[in-house]
Write a structure and sequence with these properties.
74% helix, mainly alpha
Length: 371
């Protein structure tokens, strides 16, 4: 995820091609596709588009029709990101024509373009067309042609599940995620992918109020991410936060506090204190401390968050008023006024503090939790 470093290395590679490779070589085209991927990840869509067009021209010159079609899909994705929907449809349809003629109507490449079109039509409000493309893709995945990998089918089903989630059909989305996970569970090197699917399933279970199943899915995802060395990633921090929210719903308040504390530590390191995910964890941690009777800890976190908003983020965000109100309620309960000189957050939380059952049974505070 070190995109600036990747960008520098790829630029050097393209300079070498410019000096030593034949014009429009396949090797240069491959590296331009990589550069486009890096630019897209950095949000530089115009540059990504430029590299993809150059790569496409090289592939055309070398008669690589299927590669040209694959690049057309990538170009469609960039147009979609730029909200240039008509051009995106044109690129996807071009790719679809080539894939159908060269690979057959039931090839997973065809299904993958159907999924992209389903996503596009959902985003443009054409829900009937979106659903139709989802169903067409699922028919292909249900009867895969020989040579189709489990990874291809699982990836497609995961993408379609996200569209069904957007349709506000979490149960259908869950079924697809469960099928995707089943396809991958005995495949080597797929633990991180499975963990991602389990985390998505946890969110789905949470949305439909199945909190015990949500907690179980998050717990399984967390274990896999720890084992695969991703315990310091921002994604891991977000999953810990989501698992904490499931624990809150199950009144496992101590466990929730520990999860929020670990999430806070990771997200501060990976995203910084001003990132929206980090701010959400601060808010959840304050609410949990209040529920445990640790009012002073809750107050100091909220003072720190308000200070961040006032000094670095601005006070126009609706969360600012909500947090200010929360703090006022806690200060009233504690019988004191706001301390404008908030301490560094590192000094706010004592990980060794003892929590009693009496504290844990304290009535829930009026302020809520953030997803």
């Amino acid at each position: 995820m070190q995109f600036d470093e990747a960008d520098n290395l790829c630029k050097k590679t393209l300079e070498i091609h410019r000096e030593h490779s034949a014009p429009a070589s396949l090797e240069e085209a491959a590296d331009r596709r990589l550069m486009a991927l890096i630019c897209e990840a950095k949000g530089d869509y115009e540059s990504a588009l430029e590299h993809l067009v150059l790569a496409s021209m090289a592939m055309i010159a070398n008669g690589q029709d299927n590669e040209v079609a694959a690049i057309d899909v990538s170009i469609g994705n960039i147009y979609l990101s730029l909200s240039r929907f008509d051009e995106a449809v044109f690129s996807y349809q071009k790719a679809l024509t080539v894939f159908k003629s060269s690979k057959g109507d039931n090839h997973p490449s065809v299904a993958s373009v159907f999924v992209r079109l389903a996503d596009l039509y959902y985003k443009t409000g054409k829900l009937r067309e979106s659903r139709s493309y989802c169903e067409s893709a699922l028919r292909i995945y249900a009867k895969p042609v020989p040579g189709t990998t489990a990874e291809e089918i699982a990836s497609g089903m995961t993408e379609i599940s996200a569209i069904y989630e957007s349709f506000n059909e979490p149960e259908e989305a869950l079924k697809l995620l469960q099928k995707a996970m089943k396809l991958l569970e005995d495949k080597p090197g797929q633990q991180s992918t499975i963990a991602g699917i389990e985390a998505r399933m946890g969110v789905m279970f949470y949305m439909v109020g199945r909190y015990e199943e949500a907690r179980h899915s998050f717990e399984s995802a967390v274990a896999k991410l720890r084992a695969s060395g991703e315990r310091k990633s921002a994604f891991f921090g977000v999953v810990l936060n989501q698992m904490g929210l499931a624990c809150v719903q199950l009144f496992k308040i101590d466990e929730a506090a520990e999860l929020f504390e670990e999430a806070r530590e990771i997200l501060e390191q990976e995203c910084g204190p001003c990132h929206q995910d980090t701010l959400g964890v601060y808010s959840n941690l304050a609410a949990t401390y209040d529920a445990l009777g640790r009012v002073e800890d809750a107050i100091e976190i909220l003072e720190y968050v308000l200070k961040l908003r006032e000094e670095k983020l601005g006070t126009a965000n609706p969360d600012f008023d909500d947090e200010k109100k929360r703090l006022a309620e806690l200060l009233k309960e504690a019988g004191r006024s706001r301390n404008k000189k908030a301490k560094s957050l590192e000094n706010l939380i004592d990980p060794n503090s003892k929590r009693t059952k009496k504290e844990a049974s304290k009535k829930w505070s009026a302020f809520g939790f953030r997803n």
